[in-house]
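agent> step 3/5: call structure_predict on target 'Nitrogen regulatory protein' (Shewanella pealeana).
agent> reason: downstream docking stage needs a structural representation; sequence fetched in step 2, passing through unchanged.
tool.input:
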Amino acid sequence: MELSTILQPECTTCATPGSKKKVLELISDIAAVQYPTLSSQEIFESLLAREKMGSTGIGNGIAIPHGRLTNIERPVAVLVKCEDPIAFDAIDKQPVDILFALLVPSEQCEQHLATLSLMAEKLNDKAVVKQLRKTSNESELYQVITQ
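tool.output (status=ok):
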């Protein structure tokens, strides 16, 4: 699967959210535009429920917050590059500046795991991460992650 099938350009942003809660709220607001039948609060609660099980901060300044929702038909991704890294309780205790969030239909467990694996693989590539950090706008950010 290509990331461009789940990540739309309008779901890619450069921001300064300031905290873990604020960035999860930002992700929720962006995703809610893709699913007008869902409230940003429903999305936020799904992401927060997953974070309560353990941080999705995978290290090296990267987090992959994700959640399952019953009222969606297709996966949606949101990419956020934080101008200033934020504390995210990552496994390496380092702040996070790149977040790739994934929301999937609750019944698509296998696709969810495959998509998370694809994102983790892409974000494990040091060259890609370096390019993401060098981007200065949403368009560049989208191009780097989807190429």
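agent> step 4/5: record observation. The domain at 3-146 is CATH 3.40.930.10 (Mannitol-specific EII; Chain A).
agent> proceeding.
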